[in-house]
């Protein structure tokens, strides 16, 4: 098949947005594109070029220039420029495509009626999603980019604008995180506990949710609605209320665990000598308490999800397995569990990513304590709560906190994508 040709001169015209469309006879579209180009040129002349220069320098006069404001303005201008570059490339491709159709004699849409028709047939989905994309740029992309840029600056308690200027320092914050002894030991301690916390707490709530849903689904269970209500109670109460309540329950001297439950167990089990546990002052037992609390808070959601999945499994499969002599464990391993994972695998992954950044339970229960491991982090702080402390203590380290934030994002995104790929979580059949 002969390759579709076009007038090579159209590329020269399209170098200026709108002229390529004029050359193709689409005057109205050309006028719109040329107007957009003109507005961008005016914006660049009066604001854009200066904003990009300030993004590079981050100011030159302490007390007058606010480096953070300049960074935000420059980042915003960078986004506007990238959007225009995308528009610029698109209008060149549009001019070439239309010229190709014109060369082989296909009808060309002209006038505002043609633009309206083109939007109705090909551009309608983009027209509907355009406002969402614009909102996403300013509410998600802009803050993320500013955080990314902050990770490469010396923004700390010695460089707080406008009293002092912020400077670009490259990857120094990442070097400090991994090679500076004070921060390296803190990072490794916090990071290792974050991994342990994420794996154990998330796995516990998933196991509890699957177990309770599977047991409650059995035909021989009576009063299923009552069990359903009981299992949903932890989900019905606001999480912060539950966490604060458990903080009191696990109190070393006056909490219900040490004052009532442990003495009761000693009476019921005289051959077992249980003593009061330092839940709030012993790092090990504080971690155990946190994991148990998260299991309590997280399993109802898994229970509801798995209950819905179990109701969709055909009883014929279990009847056939019974005829073949399968045990309850074999039925679960070969019928129930695969059905659950095929549907709920993405949700299970989100439980791990959520707990990796679960700030509320760590901070509300014991503020990341007890004690500390250096660098402003407590013994039970995870990365996200350490970031909070890095930015709110008396000597804030905003640049380092941004570097840790980027590391968290990279870990969560990489692990999520890997698991989604391995489990074919979003594969469309």
UniProtKB/TrEMBL annotation:
Q: Tell me which InterPro entries the record gives.
A: MetI-like, MetI-like_sf
Whether Cell membrane counts among this entry's keywords is yes
How is the protein disposed in the membrane? Multi-pass membrane protein
A Gene Ontology molecular function term for this protein is:
ABC-type maltose transporter activity
Chief localization = membrane
Domain ABC transmembrane type-1 as annotated: residue spans: 191-419
Tell me, in a sentence or two, what this protein's role is.
Part of the ABC transporter complex MalEFGK involved in maltose/maltodextrin import. Probably responsible for the translocation of the substrate across the membrane.
Q: Which PANTHER family match?
A: MALTOSE/MALTODEXTRIN TRANSPORT SYSTEM PERMEASE PROTEIN MALF, MALTOSE_MALTODEXTRIN TRANSPORT SYSTEM PERMEASE PROTEIN MALF
- Protein known as: Maltose/maltodextrin transport system permease protein
């Amino acid at each position: 098949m002969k390759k579709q040709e076009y007038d090579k001169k159209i590329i020269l015209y399209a170098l200026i947005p709108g002229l390529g469309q004029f050359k193709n006879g689409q005057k109205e579209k050309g006028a719109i594109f040329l107007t957009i180009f003109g507005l961008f040129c005016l914006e660049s002349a009066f604001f854009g070029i200066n904003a990009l220069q300030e993004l590079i320098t981050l100011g030159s006069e302490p007390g007058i220039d606010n480096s953070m404001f300049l960074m935000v303005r420059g980042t915003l201008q960078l986004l506007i420029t990238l959007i225009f570059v995308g528009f610029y490339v698109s209008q060149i491709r549009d001019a070439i495509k239309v010229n190709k159709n014109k060369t082989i004699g296909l009808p060309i849409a002209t006038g505002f009626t043609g633009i309206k028709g083109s939007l109705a047939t090909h551009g309608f989905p983009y027209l509907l999603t355009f406002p969402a994309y614009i909102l996403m740029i300013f509410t998600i992309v802009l803050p993320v980019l500013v955080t990314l840029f902050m990770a490469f600056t010396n923004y700390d308690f010695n460089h707080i604008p406008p009293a002092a200027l912020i400077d670009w320092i490259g990857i120094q914050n990442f070097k400090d995180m991994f090679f500076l002894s004070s921060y390296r030991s803190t990072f490794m301690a916090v990071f290792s506990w974050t991994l342990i916390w994420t794996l154990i707490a998330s796995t516990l709530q998933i196991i509890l949710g699957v177990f309770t849903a599977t047991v409650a689904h059995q035909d021989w269970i009576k009063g299923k609605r009552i069990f359903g209500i009981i299992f949903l109670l932890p989900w019905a109460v606001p999480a912060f209320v539950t966490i604060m309540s458990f903080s009191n329950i696990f109190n070393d001297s006056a909490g219900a665990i040490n004052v009532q439950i442990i003495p009761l167990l000693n009476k019921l089990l005289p051959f077992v000598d249980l003593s009061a546990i330092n839940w709030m002052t012993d790092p090990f037992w504080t971690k155990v308490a946190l994991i148990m609390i998260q299991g309590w808070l997280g399993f109802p959601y898994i229970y509801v999800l798995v209950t819905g999945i179990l109701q969709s499994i055909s009883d014929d499969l279990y009847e056939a397995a019974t005829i073949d002599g399968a045990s309850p464990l074999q039925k679960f391993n070969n019928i129930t569990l695969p059905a659950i994972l095929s549907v709920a695998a993405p949700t299970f992954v989100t439980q791990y990513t959520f707990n990796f950044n679960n700030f509320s339970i760590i901070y509300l229960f014991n503020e990341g304590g007890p004690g500390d491991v250096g660098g402003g982090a407590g013994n039970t702080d995870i990365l996200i709560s350490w970031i909070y402390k890095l930015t709110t203590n008396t000597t804030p380290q905003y640049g380092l906190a941004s570097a840790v934030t980027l590391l968290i994002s990279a870990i969560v995104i990489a692990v999520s994508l890997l698991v989604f790929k391995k489990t074919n979580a979003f594969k469309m059949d």
